[in-house]
Queue: 4 jobs
Job 1
Amino acid sequence: MAKLLKARVVITSPNNPPLSGGAVLVEGERIEALGAFEELKQRFPEAEIVDFGESILFPGFVNLHTHASMTIFRGLADDLPLMTWLENYIFPVEQHLRREWVYWGAKLAIAEMLRSGITTFVDMYLFEPEVIRAVEETGVRAALGEGLFDFPSPGYGPLEKGLALTRELLESYATHPRLKIIVCPHATYTCSPETLKKAAALAEEFNTLLHIHLSETRDEVALIKARYGETPPFHLEKLGLLNERLLVAHAVQLTDEEIELFARRGVRVAHCPESNLKLGSGVAPVVALLEAGVLVGLGTDGPASNNDLDLFGEMRTAAFLQKGLSFDPTRLPAEKVFEMATTFGARALGFEELGFIAPGARADLAVVSLAAPHLTPFYDPFSLLVYSARGGDVTDVMVGGEFVLRGGKILTFDEEEARRQVIEIAREVRALTKKG
Amino acid sequence: MAKLLKARVVITSPNNPPLSGGAVLVEGERIEALGAFEELKQRFPEAEIVDFGESILFPGFVNLHTHASMTIFRGLADDLPLMTWLENYIFPVEQHLRREWVYWGAKLAIAEMLRSGITTFVDMYLFEPEVIRAVEETGVRAALGEGLFDFPSPGYGPLEKGLALTRELLESYATHPRLKIIVCPHATYTCSPETLKKAAALAEEFNTLLHIHLSETRDEVALIKARYGETPPFHLEKLGLLNERLLVAHAVQLTDEEIELFARRGVRVAHCPESNLKLGSGVAPVVALLEAGVLVGLGTDGPASNNDLDLFGEMRTAAFLQKGLSFDPTRLPAEKVFEMATTFGARALGFEELGFIAPGARADLAVVSLAAPHLTPFYDPFSLLVYSARGGDVTDVMVGGEFVLRGGKILTFDEEEARRQVIEIAREVRALTKKG
């Protein structure tokens, strides 16, 4: 049955004025109509009315880069140099990583993401078929792929098996309504030029995205320069990999020339400001990228280096950083970071029918209730969502026309079970790190 | 009746290991005992047991700098140059500021602060007697004073009346259990040397703090240099105002020499990282200040330039900034920013019995429930509170031995009424800015 969703204000896209007293008609997986509530009520008398009360209805967020299952490592070790963290904690435990850990970690992550208004996430990790299982069961939307690298993987073993797994997933899920398989070579320092080329060929064959960590730290840039005589972007350029198919995570350490190159080649960027700060990587030149015409969305990165999956916080940090470091409070205004978290993120994934509210678009929607002291008073919906709202303020989420969160309750799976399972997994993880 | 508070973990202070399965005995306004739950239960069989379940119990936060009532301007105008914001929005409306606006704005702010675990806040604004009324009614703790400046104030009229009001408040509330009156000259660019000296004399006479905005922006430093031939810190030094009585808000634009001077004179600093970013002021040299031995606490600044009153977020931003900008993830670890938000903040106010949990300390406590996806799993309580928790996660707050928030409900006042009143006030504020 068609649903007529009513809110105090509907944000349709950052480029249109918010609709006060607006409503959205959802039929099947799509938005059928948009307008004043009373008018739509007359046009669609049969529709079930869902009134969200004193609230803002907005397009669901796109988390453009994460490793969702790493919820199991959230807070395991912080405030450490990157290599100590990876080599003494993450890598030793990942050697013992189990399929079920990835599954339960992803489910817990999805609970957290839904509660922060994320309807689509991009995932790269190990045992991705387990993340796929979590996505299918929970009703969220995702673009994901198995992390590929030259050394043997706890997930698939030797690289050839990883490429075979990726091909198999690309074939199996070619027509899935909520899943897009992407090809995920981990980074230029973990993948040889041959590996990168094989991954790119696969992405081209299946007309999908190539997703890679790039230019995250100064050390990485120095290493790639020493190894290949070029910075990471120019290394990829030489390999013919810089194009509209490439989605780059981080892009912190970029020269002006590299920004221009990204713009010319149509490379897309997932900006992860909080992870970049927490790991001591630096601050990506977001405004320069946007001004050059590069499509930049927002990602949380994994919850072990953030330590949450909250795109409200990411919008806020992205905007605040650009203002504070440039001494210019007009930089990266609320509407622009909101656009990065919605429309830009969707477009970076090639999802042209996502990231805004309009007739014909897919019904991926989220609702923030304003009935809270920190969301009072109401002057401007973008300001409230970007500068005052936070994960957990979202009461309702719809993905492809189906409610997955309704009135603060997740409908599609048992969130408490996911919590209990991850608490058990954490006991084993802690035991492994103590041994190490 | 004595209360025995039980939590999964009790954080007593950042310098002691957290107490697993710990409990706190509260008698009157103080903590009487601390230890293992079973042991305290035997020692105090008469005490009422309050079990917070799967939770962290910790010392309440000290918000070391805010203008609480500015909740009424939250989101009114953002992403603007500071002077446009002040001159086109804040100042014109403040000309029409009414006593009740300050009262209701403060009450709404207190609701938000309690829900973010803040038990003490420092306030400087107009019509402070209204903030005092809100503090008395709501049961929170505060150090506050009327904002003083040379031009006529909408609050008190000419400066002499502001000084007289301050003296009157100092006399009236000298023995209040939860209120400390401080003297608040607004800034060096709004107060003449004579005004500053009068304010300082008053603070000395009543043995209280002098609180001032200082070295917030590069423009301010340039202006004071042009006007007095010295930077703001050296201007105050010349006036004899740099001492242990001085609590400085912001301290963003400091030279190494000024940091040393602050350390030598025992000046205290309220670090407000989010406001400093949002207004394009920059990033304060927090690590350098701490290393020099300066007492630095955390403040949210007013909710119109933040746009929230959440010290969890402030801890996180403070830590992330120092790591990201120094390329060093070990900087300002979770325990240290937690200390800034609790013990250091309390000590900066001269509250030696606050900011930690120990027998004899005042019972200002907060509880975060861990039963949420973003707070799962549990490896380290400091990491969870600093990097994953957020305002709104606090379920219970006690100030001076009395519950003010219990099981997610504010006990001492009608939070919804405060929201309704501020929504009405916002209508008038909006009308005033439209006229302007």
Note: Chain B touches chain A through 73 residues (CB under 8 Å).
Job 2
Amino acid sequence: MTSPVLLIIDPAGTIATADPDAPQVSVLDLGVTRGDGVFESIGVVGGRAQALEPHLTRLARSAAMLDLPVPDLDVWREAVLRSIELADDTAPELLVKLVYTRGIEGSASAAPTGWVHLFEAGGFDEERTAGIAVVTLDRGYRSDVRDTSPWLLQGAKTLSYAVNKAALREAARRGADDVIFVSTDGIVLEGPNSTVIALLDGVYVTTPDSLGVLEGTTQAAFFADVESRGGSTAYRAITVDELHAATALWLASSGRQIAPVATLDGEPVAQEPALTAAGVEALLAR
Amino acid sequence: MTSPVLLIIDPAGTIATADPDAPQVSVLDLGVTRGDGVFESIGVVGGRAQALEPHLTRLARSAAMLDLPVPDLDVWREAVLRSIELADDTAPELLVKLVYTRGIEGSASAAPTGWVHLFEAGGFDEERTAGIAVVTLDRGYRSDVRDTSPWLLQGAKTLSYAVNKAALREAARRGADDVIFVSTDGIVLEGPNSTVIALLDGVYVTTPDSLGVLEGTTQAAFFADVESRGGSTAYRAITVDELHAATALWLASSGRQIAPVATLDGEPVAQEPALTAAGVEALLAR
């Protein structure tokens, strides 16, 4: 069992250890009063932070979309690595969560709040092998809102995830484990915490971030592995009809790596267990 | 100057004073990691909490939409009243914020986090008299999403307000003070923190909550005052064209009470200073 590690990053960039069981956040922090901040979750397997640079880059991109002060990625990288060094025991799989908020409301100067929180993860074997039950839910947006209405923050990984959590509760009400959001114009978007990968006519396909989804760090690593083995990948709009007709489907995320979709809206989905096993193995071995 | 008062409500319903300048929230609290909670802001004028019961009712309704444990409104009412009693000096205008989150992630039992935070408000005179510059922004949703997609939580006052804050920054970029969200099908919705009131053909009109907007507590009090003086009010869908042709427009919220819209998308809006003054006076005298 790995004890959680909490490191606070102050506005000057100083990293300090803190007690994760003690309160650390002000009731005036806009992170809690307005969900006004961004985050990342990074898998740590065998003591290695996975896709650390893509996660840091995405943190900075999300921050820019929210007009937050530019995060010092050298400091955040240092905090992630230090949290792993400080772990009293390295469980096979950990997660490091990075949280960066706008800070105390009404502060005279911009003083964002930041922390890095490392904790034990795992228990993903069942999802990675037996797969997950997924339902499609309407995200309510057209697929072009990233460009027409940037204030909707699609493509930013914000702390305002109440809708994502509500969608997962709706999935549970329908007897499912997870969700694939679709746009009002019938385009496949993403999961509340994951990237969709569809095997279509022998090509691994995912939704491009131009359609208002988060760039997937785990999906990118999976695509790199597929390509290294001679496979084909593509970023393009996937229709809901294509989703239902796919050879196989996966949801990719930092904790689970990839989980095969076993049922979609209550209907069985063909699975490719050998491809899944090879993908999980490659992703864990990064 | 009134010193802030913070009261923490524990899961058992016990109310305890706490230091508002000290950290009080865990980094594991879903309120901050996921914006997973609800809130209310109640105006306190001359020591009286305004529209206390409608605010408590709305807190419970928002909580229900998020499947949070049912809040004990007797405890919340007591906390609001006690925070006012504890104020060391009663400034003319205060605000009490109520925050209710899903609590610590991974807790064995549901143990929501709750607090009541009273602080001095004011400085609204300019907005109440000279008025505010407002821009319309596309909310990205159809006006029927409350019914078709309840997981989008439209009509709940959640902590996930990053989009509301981003919309206000977009307004500032356009040289404006505030926003009126409109639906993709051309219906007037609400402000990021306010209710829209339009004077149309002698009738005060606002958007009904069936169109996915928050029920307005200040707007309801304003309508009650208008009706008590023989005026006409209505809840119905307002089109964007009607908005631009209105006799006058106001945004209603707990802090400002009502603020007249001076310009809409850069164009001057007719104002009714006598109606505004009478409305503000009645709302402050509640």
Note: Chain A touches chain B through 54 residues (CB under 8 Å).
Job 3
Amino acid sequence: MTQINAYGAESQDSGVGPMLIDRRTLRPDDVAIEIDYCGICHTDIHFVQNDWGRTHYPVVPGHEIVGRVTAVGEQIKRFRPGDRVGVGCLVDSCRECSACEQGLEQYCAQGFTATYNGEDRIDGSVTCGGYSESIVVSERFVLRMPESLDAAASAPLLCAGITTWSPLQYFGVGPGHRVGVVGMGGLGHMAVKFARALGAEVTLFTRSEAKRAEAEKQGAHHVVISTDEAQMRAAANTFDFILDTVPVQHDLNPYIAALQHNGTHILVGLLEPIEPPLDAGAIVFRRRMLAGSLIGGLPETQEMLDFCAEHGIVCEIEMLDIGNINQAYERMRNSDVRYRFVIDMKTLRPAS
Amino acid sequence: MTQINAYGAESQDSGVGPMLIDRRTLRPDDVAIEIDYCGICHTDIHFVQNDWGRTHYPVVPGHEIVGRVTAVGEQIKRFRPGDRVGVGCLVDSCRECSACEQGLEQYCAQGFTATYNGEDRIDGSVTCGGYSESIVVSERFVLRMPESLDAAASAPLLCAGITTWSPLQYFGVGPGHRVGVVGMGGLGHMAVKFARALGAEVTLFTRSEAKRAEAEKQGAHHVVISTDEAQMRAAANTFDFILDTVPVQHDLNPYIAALQHNGTHILVGLLEPIEPPLDAGAIVFRRRMLAGSLIGGLPETQEMLDFCAEHGIVCEIEMLDIGNINQAYERMRNSDVRYRFVIDMKTLRPAS
């Protein structure tokens, strides 16, 4: 066991501050990683505030982790010290169920082990995330980060990126498809980039005319103002897929109406009972679908990273010293970030 | 124009009784059919009662029609007088949109022309259905009925059959799949037969233990009593597809929970806003899908009929004299039919 520096929340009201945590001694299949960058996800805020009522304090958030291998367990052949690697939202799963066998560890029948606030499957300890100097993770859950990508800007690929990539791949989005993206935040801007790179015709749905130029810069061919009924009516029956990144309640029915027959509306943000209610008639009468998708499995995450290297895709980020993290959270609560904060972990390590 | 005998409703309160209607003179692409049998669908009752507020009276229902060709228009090569043919829910569509080009006329972008209470695309008249001596239909919308199938028992294949067949085919249901069927009525019993014949492992969800023996007779491997929470809990995370034939409000969430990751719940009956609300979290966390499906296109209807001939599949029916139709409606309102009434149209024609 090694004691290291980290940032975390002691309680629901404490905010995030410095603390010491333990990292385990390497198991035979473990990789030890010195963390260089960690992205900030909205989920981090939810856990710090205990919004979902299942936070184990102290909690050390962070699941968009990029660093360098410093040591490997005796069984490890795939990584060597010095390799640039990444860790996303998952650090373990049962590895035996049909989902795990399909490389869809995020749908593990027994539940995956989250990178933070999870329970280690071997020693029962609570997992601590990437707001820390280093992390120890089982090889299967470690990604190879392409050296050609900017290390900081690729960190959010490990959550915001894969969450939008996975459904686009699963549903086979490509040339000839009309794809809508709802919301232009950390996830939405990645969805626009990916859908464009995959060859689709991309439309951003947004409430704000102010986002038009930015959406086009990220790759959107068209922008539809979702609060403009005439624009929404004109968009009816036109989309093959709509990727909906909005994590709060919103009326899905106007988007369902925008789907062609056989079209699919994909939720990656909303987790609540759907209100106002979804109109079943609009689903039945044109064979439309409502789907959901959660993060992504390890094999598809590696595929995404390799695709990003090939196409030069990274996230739009704003770099941050870890001492400013509470201000960053406040700005995120006000949607004041384009599009992802990434913590420079040098600012955590004591000057040597 | 020819005047013929029919049964229909004069008004919302009239019930169904005898009337005279006109059938058009054959157009070059028309087929004239003497009707032998016509199934009764719940939709017929809805239109007779004007439940959906869009009935044009007088209305002559009936869209599960089997008969013999009596004459053909000058362009017709595919049918000859004497052929056994069928007509389902559709008698026309725009024939030009992407859906029509894909043989999915039911999803016609301009709306299909319904077999009754529709508006003829050429002369603007209101279409009259199969509770009548004869019908005239454009060739594209006429099906070839296999002579090896019982003519009366195959009539409901044209609505109840194709409505369940189409989604099973579209979603590729076959060997190795666990398929649930919700509801054991006209549609549900066909869904059980088809899913079984396609090689799936079939479970009927029903509220009533009394339906177990009947479900097994129709081909179900298992029965789950949907009102028994312990049985529903035991069924969690097990199904690849659930075909939901229930046309009235019911809680979808227990069925969504019964789907495996990647599983799909398919609505073919419910047409209202979904209450209680669908839980988006259960959709997202296991990449489940909610889909809808409407009847079927002409090519897939013919494929279904040929499949039925190959596998000896027909509907379970109760034959009826047309004079008893109002009693039949009353029994259907009380779910007192196994599983479809079919009118013997000889009882309409005056004894010669």
Note: The two ends of chain A are 22 Å apart (CA to CA).
Job 4
Amino acid sequence: MTMHGSRLGIPVVWHEDCLRHQPGGEVWLGVREDGTEVPERARVILAALTAAGAPVVPPRPHDPAALLAVHDPALVGHLATVWADWEAGGYPADYGRDRVVPYVFPTAAMLASLPLRTPAAIHGRVGMFCYDTMTLVGPGSWEAIRAAADCARTAAELVASGQPAAYALCRPPGHHAGRSGYGGSCYLNNAAIAAQALRAAGIDRVAVLDIDAHHGNGTQSIFYGRPDVFYGSVHVDPGAGWFPHYLGFAGERGDGQGLGANQNIPLAPGSGDERWLDAVGQLCAQVRTAGADAVVLSLGVDAAAADPESPLEVTADGYRAAGALIGELGPVAVIQEGGYDLTSLGDYVAAALFGLQAGQAAAAAG
Amino acid sequence: MTMHGSRLGIPVVWHEDCLRHQPGGEVWLGVREDGTEVPERARVILAALTAAGAPVVPPRPHDPAALLAVHDPALVGHLATVWADWEAGGYPADYGRDRVVPYVFPTAAMLASLPLRTPAAIHGRVGMFCYDTMTLVGPGSWEAIRAAADCARTAAELVASGQPAAYALCRPPGHHAGRSGYGGSCYLNNAAIAAQALRAAGIDRVAVLDIDAHHGNGTQSIFYGRPDVFYGSVHVDPGAGWFPHYLGFAGERGDGQGLGANQNIPLAPGSGDERWLDAVGQLCAQVRTAGADAVVLSLGVDAAAADPESPLEVTADGYRAAGALIGELGPVAVIQEGGYDLTSLGDYVAAALFGLQAGQAAAAAG
């Protein structure tokens, strides 16, 4: 990676259990596709970062309390047991039901004025937690979900203990998972777990910056009413027909004590580097104004030009420049989110981290 | 049909457009199946009823106001245009997307505290209205949905104008459709449209009795806060793992002014005639206590022993006896709901209507 002119010093927090989640595809508009959130993503990123010289460190083991600080115990319990329940339910795998997929969803259109109650059967219950048909669960999913959360928490703790930056190679990703529900190929919210870990370590003001190509509706919803964690996101406009469709609009500014601590910048498809970096710059300016003692960066690289899941057309140089802008803000715990083009994924992540390293060095040099 | 010892005099309201809805299957737990809510159902029932001597009458044409009395205009608008929107969206039919199937659903787990807003793209928007993956829309669906609603309304108007009983051969069925949403193979709520038509014709107190094997969550939700329309249902216990999973429990008794005007009797799988008829009798007793000037009967015959969609094991004689009990209550507009065993479906519907006719005759005699 001589193109970056230096060695990547940011530690990579990684556990092989993150490979154990094999969603086996996703169901989009009633049809099962191969899907793009595959274990190979993590392998490609790990190869690029180790080739760049980054040290790899293991996560600290699982602490349930760290999950429960941002997630409903019912969601965590569901994710821990849903595969076993599915197997016990006897849904015939030979008819394609080899993964957990919901079919009925307790929306307001269904429930009307009645309260939500938990269904007895897992095939009815799963739609209470999982809000789409894209986010399948299989035999090794829970182990990977837990390992990804551990990686996120460990990266945050490294930063809290003085490391300027640490990167969690989380898979599955997390930013679409809310306090009580999962979707968008996300199960537990790794970025929220990291932000909460920073708060728990005594850091007063945390900013989550989300540069994944999609809005991080889960992270937004978890911190929507809180003034201590700012959430800012640049993403493809859900109003242009993109996931998560229902959320991610500019008018969503937070609620109650959190009013003003949420900022979305939706971009038109095809925006490219200039408009994207302008938005990243606006978010950084807001973080400076709001004040943040540490940053969590939700690093999805699916804004990449070659990515099959978004139309934002951002280059690797764009990600490097974004990393530099964010690195100037202070200490950063980086959480891997999306990014699905296996040929360019590793280079994009490396570019963002090299940019971050350079931005932090420049800021330190004053 | 000499086994019934008489000719069926109840008029059958029927329109051929009800055959135009060809859902093309249903997606259950991520896999598309052939489905059981097929046009042949209506043909089989029509053949049995005409063989029994019943007169067939056409529905009065569409009156949008009649739909809007029980449904949100946004739902009606969605159903009227969703297929055209889908076609315009260019979802490739050659990959199996020949029908409208949602993939993301704005549940509380997704939205958290944020308000529901209508997505721009139809593939995101459909999950706001359709709460499951079982209820597909295709080219002729709207014409059938509208025709079924017309049949229901016409049957109610026949009853309001003095006919002791009228039967609407509705397809698709309706009792899972709520004010703002659809699911469970139902789109508009034919029974609710009939009940509202009775009210609009000046009938003060209406009772909807629902003997479909599944809970009519849509009808319940539409009238949940109203004292003028009683809703009573016997169905397989959703707590035993049956659709609609989230609703249909005994504790749901209505709300506000409607408190006490809702009664669910969930039954265990395998209950059979005796327990089922006991529940029907309890519902009839409640209707007598509450007082009703006319009854809407949601006649699903999927409690049939041979039905593939429920485990209640009720015989045709059971349905005849239920019809007799309900016929004794007064004038009845009968709305076809479920029933999926094509070999016995016609006989079951005929048995229920002969029972109803006999019950009304007995009550008139004395």
Note: The mean pLDDT of chain A is 96.
